[in-house]
Amino acid sequence: MSFDHRIFNFAAGPATLPEEVLKQAADEMLNWRGLGTSVLEISHRSKEFMEVYEEVVQDLRSLMNIPSNYEILLLQGGGLGQNAAIPMNLMPLAKNGPKADYIVTGIWSEKSYKEAQKYGIANLAASSAAEKFNTIPPRNTWKLSSDAAYVLYCANETIGGVEFPDVPDVGKTPLVADISSNFLSKEMDVSQCAVWFGGVQKNIAPAGMTIVIVRKDLLGHSMGITPLIWDWSVQAGTQSMINTPPTFSIYMAGLGFKWLLGQGGVKVIEKRNQEKADLLYQFLDQSSFYENRVEKQYRSRMNVTFFLKDESLNAEFLAQSNAAGLVALRGHKAAGGMRASIYNAMPLAGVKALIEFMRDFERRA
Ligand code: PMP
User: Fold this and answer.
1) Using one digit for the tens of pLDDT, what is the confidence trace for 222-269?
2) For a substitution probing ligand 1, which of 75, 110, 159, 180 has the most ligand atoms within 8 Å of its CB?
3) What angle do CA 96, 99, 104 make, to 5 degrees?
4) Domains in the chain: ranges and CATH
5) How far apart are CA 130 and CA 212, in angstroms?
6) Is this structure's pTM higher than 0.85?
């Protein structure tokens, strides 16, 4: 089978996957480990699949250096499912009734904030909505509550292209991080947050699995209404198999983790991600034809948003980039403009090809 036809895919998620991973999955699709069947067709409780599951958890633990007092849950329902699961599992920990603080820096944390209102008091502790989500409110302006069960923030806003450079300090209150779009893209000190969560469909694997990394002392306090499948302590007690897990996504994540380990791990990929993002932002900054509107220190390394100053050229830009094999550059409808998502699997060559195209488009415009 030839992979030579592959284009550079800048989609925000589901997103481009490493070619080696796709090749391996294709090669072993019909006869996995000599079983005469694919991995997709066997029981999730079989010895063979349990080996895959154990290895996935082990490899993630080693890639992120996850301490032993954290549980790793492999769930379904996406980031949006966790927007409900988080308050249901954690809000009862608040001393004066269910309550949590939310930091809103874009569309995704805004969705988390709105969902939480169904389960208790969601306090809007900070928001950059007035700045069109092009920045992060300075830490000293956040109005955190003294009786919140947790503080939630989105480490990387996929739509606006805004990323926290560091984990914010919120004192003793457990911090919850949505890392859907920068999972494994850079080193993260797991002990700095009580909960990390995100879908795998951007940086890791095909859609279908949501990973939750939760400090064990926070388990066991869920609301009575919590669906079994999103009750973290139930899932922790059943190796995330209270029902049928997303076996394809788990298997693919396993291949993705091996690929990442083979690249040298998170530290190496972080350097490469930084290099890719720097190249693209440097190009945007020297241009009078394109612009990025995010405050510099908060620019995302994963989702680079940009606008053509003359927006009447948008359709032409998209048609020509597509024809040049640089696809899925249209920005999210809520943000407009363009967006190049350059996750772990996007090679440097893809970013260079994009810059080359953009330079040429500008010259011809
Ligand atoms: N949070 C962020 C930062 C996201 O980018 C997304 C998906 N684009 C979500 C949450 C929602 O995730 P899902 O689609 O897996 O429910």
Assistant:
1) 999 999 999 999 999 999 999 999 999 999 999 999 999 999 999 999
2) 180
3) 150
4) 25-263 (3.40.640.10), 265-364 (3.90.1150.10)
5) 31
6) yes
